[in-house]
Amino acid sequence: MTAGKRILICPLNWGLGHATRCIPIIQKLHQEGNTILIASYGISGTLLQEEFPQLQHIYFRGLTMHYSKGNSQIARVILSTPSILYHSIKEHFTLKKLIKEHQIDIIISDNRFGLWHKQVTTAYISHQLLIKMPTGFRFLEKSIWKIHRRIIHHYTYCLIPDYQDTTKSLAGKLTHKYRLPKNAYFCNPLSRFHAQSSIVEENEMYASEVLVILSGLEPQRTVLESLLITQLKELNKRTILIQGVPSKETIIRYEKNITILPYLLHTELQSYIRNTGIVICRAGYSSIMDLVSMQKKAILIPTPGQPEQEYLGKYLAQIGLFAVQQQASLSIQQGIADVKNTYIPNFEKSIKLPF
């Protein structure tokens, strides 16, 4: 147990998942008597400012990614490689200034490559030790794994939000395919609902037959929203759709049987999840951890051309945890039928940290 330390939390701004899975870590370390500083930007920064208004927030810009509208993202990622390298180097040198200015003792980086330091304890959070590549480029996976492993070894610890037991793993080969880094430390899956999952009661105010939780990068987030609204209107089930767009204003709008909200803090979102029949969301790993934490059945829709989500969707469907639909051939009606044959495993609520 750590106490009295100054801890800098730095999530990647790539969708909301990197920020949401930092929430239970922030809660735990803050409750143990540490001073938490959150260094972030973009929608991740907005989310964490809303979740933790009492903590100190530092604007710490890094890489911002966007997806293409098509079904392949590989060209976009390849073209972004120089930007990834540039931001990793830039944030590494910016970090040195932040450490000196704020007297930082521990740094926790969620998938930001450049936030290591030789004189400070550092932790790198990632479940995706194997970075999945699309068909036609999979021969590169082992080489990229070796590069990623070298980056990871700059850190004091690599925190893996998964189970060490491969029979219980939620990430599958993303975590367990290749030899683990020497500094690997399994902290168990991380859900923003860790602290309250056992106390949320049923409440008609939050009730729905279908709850849609959107997330991820644009323009694919908006593309999926449009597709879902069209199909859900036809199904005529009581639906609540959370757009996943953090903002200062909460404007509620209605389309036939659908109530649309821009964003919810995790405490309120948890109540909506508890009181719905089924969740529809992307196959992002943070969303998966949240669903298992809440013991909620769901339809997962992988982001097109996102190999990690495509793998997770296929893997979790094969072991019977979730129903999966592809965006290009989306059928919510079929997905609802498939959900009946799925199950949710038990969730280990304890968070293990090496400091």
Give a written overview of the molecule.
This protein is an alpha/beta fold and 355 residues long. Helix content is 34%, strand content 18%. It is built from eleven helices and 14 strands. The protein has a seven-stranded parallel β-sheet. A seven-stranded mixed β-sheet has the order 10-11-9-8-12-13-14, with helices on both faces. The chain is globular.
Key features of this structure:
11 helices, 355 residues, alpha/beta, 7-stranded mixed sheet, 34% helix
Give the secondary structure arrangement, pairings included.
Elements: E1 6-11, H1 17-20, H2 23-31, E2 35-40, H3 42-51, E3 56-59, H4 74-102, E4 106-110, E5 121-125, H5 141-152, E6 157-160, H6 173-176, E7 184-186, E8 208-213, H7 220-235, E9 239-242, E10 253-255, E11 258-261, H8 266-274, E12 276-282, H9 285-293, E13 298-301, H10 307-318, E14 323-324, H11 332-339
Parallel strand pairs: 1-2, 1-4, 2-3, 4-5, 5-6, 6-7, 8-9, 8-12, 9-11, 12-13, 13-14
Antiparallel strand pairs: 10-11
Sheet/helix structural class:
alpha/beta
Q: Main β-sheet: number of strands, strand sense, barrel status? A: 7 strands, parallel
Helix content: 25-40%
Q: What is the total tally of β strands?
A: 14
For the biggest β-sheet, the strand order reads 3-2-1-4-5-6-7
As residue ranges, the low-confidence spans are: none
- What is the H/E string? EHHEHEHEEHEHEEHEEEHEHEHEH
- The portion of residues forming beta strands comes to 15-25%
Shape: globular
The whole-number mean of residue pLDDT values reads 92
Counted by DSSP, the helix tally is: 11
**Separation of the first and last Cα atoms:** 6 Å
What is the radius of gyration computed over CA atoms, rounded to a whole number of angstroms? 20 Å
